[in-house]
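Postdoc handover notes: sequence design on the structure in folder B. Input tokens:
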């Protein structure tokens, strides 16, 4: 599904993998994620994505000193490296990698997932869930998650970050 949100995003869900994963007892608790993915496909509030309040356009500085970063070179990373080498047009690399991972990686469920964070959501994540949120805003923030995966009963969010 093409989403025209200041630029074109190819929102894709692998329905077969999603159904198979949700059929396991380990992943039944993730049904709300499937419901959310379907809701965004059917009734995404596109108008919210037309404003300038994009999470990726914020000026917040993220302090990575307090974050534990573990480098892992899994089989999926090595295969992704091969895919990226095979795409000659640089602007197509992101999309081609997403297509490849959605089609072949057993844990990738969706790509370019639209997310909406209200000011109340940000307060909840900061005050209730204990996340450090380096953004102070009264606007609703929008973002697209590059990859949504599930492993061992947990959701994993993968998103590219290019430092300034």
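Designed sequence:
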């Amino acid at each position: 599904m093409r989403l025209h949100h200041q630029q074109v995003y190819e929102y894709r869900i692998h329905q077969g993998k999603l159904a198979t994963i949700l059929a396991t007892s380990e992943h039944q608790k993730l049904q709300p994620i499937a419901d959310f993915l379907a809701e965004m496909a059917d009734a995404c509030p596109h108008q919210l994505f037309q404003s300038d309040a994009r999470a990726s356009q914020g000026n917040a500085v993220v302090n990575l000193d307090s974050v534990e970063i573990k480098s892992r070179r899994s089989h999926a990373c090595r295969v992704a490296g091969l895919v990226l080498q095979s795409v000659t047009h640089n602007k197509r690399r992101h999309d081609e990698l997403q297509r490849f991972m959605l089609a072949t990686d057993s844990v990738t469920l969706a790509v370019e997932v639209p997310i909406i964070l209200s000011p109340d959501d940000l307060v909840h994540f900061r005050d209730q869930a204990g996340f450090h949120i380096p953004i102070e805003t009264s606007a609703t923030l929008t973002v697209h998650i590059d990859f949504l995966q599930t492993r061992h009963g947990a959701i994993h969010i993968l998103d590219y970050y290019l430092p300034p």
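Context for whoever picks this up: The chain has five helices and six strands. Don't rerun without checking with the PI first.
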